[in-house]
Design brief:
Pfam families: Adenine_glyco (PF03352). This is DNA-3-methyladenine glycosylase I. Keywords: DNA damage, DNA repair, Hydrolase, Metal-binding, Zinc. One of its GO terms (biological process) is base-excision repair. By secondary structure, the protein is mainly alpha-helical. The protein has one domain: Hypothetical protein, domain 2 (Endonuclease III, domain 1), CATH 1.10.340.30. It has helices spanning 13-21, 30-43, 48-52, 55-61, 67-71, 75-82, 91-111, 114-119, 142-153, 161-170; strands spanning 127-128, 174-175. The protein has a two-stranded parallel sheet with strand order 1-2. The longest helix is centred in the middle third of the chain and has 21 residues, at 91-111. It is globular, with a radius of gyration of 16 Å. It starts with 12 loop residues before the first helix and ends in a 10-residue tail after the last strand. The mean pLDDT is 94.
Amino acid sequence: MTKKRCAWCEKTDLYKDYHDNEWGKPVYDDPTLFEFLILETFQAGLSWYTVLVKRDNFRKAFAGFDVQKVAKFTDAKLQVLAEDVGIIRNKLKIKAAVTNAQAFIKVQEEFGSFSKYIWGFVDGKPIDNNRKTLRDVPATTEISDALSKDLKKRGFKFVGSTVVYAHMQATGMVNDHVEDCWVRN
């Protein structure tokens, strides 16, 4: 019998695997939260599939998503990345990845971890939204608006409310699996 999934992931096996094994599962470790932050930054204005298909290339290009290393990328390294056909070569997003790494480290220093900071916006536990269909899933919420505003205040780039809400969904801060999806519970 075929598993019922959220309709957005039915296009490819890559999407199905990501949906079944990662999307919406709570993430509390800073390295994975940083990885998703970088990937969501590059996704802004594009499809998630575009990023997902290049994920391994991003991992290589961005030092295994090591926040300390990314924070120290030089202008020369940024130029190399701008010529890397394996990733999305948007110079503003590449620069934002470095800026965001630096801001991420500052948040870690202030709060003890980025996880403690970001999960504080949802009182440390996932919000279960109990969506019936994909049409019921919003692009933003009041919480993503507030988080976006705070991230921007802290110097993060490409963190509009839609990007932030996608990050919240990906890292399980919100459960937006539709009600008949087998992963939901």
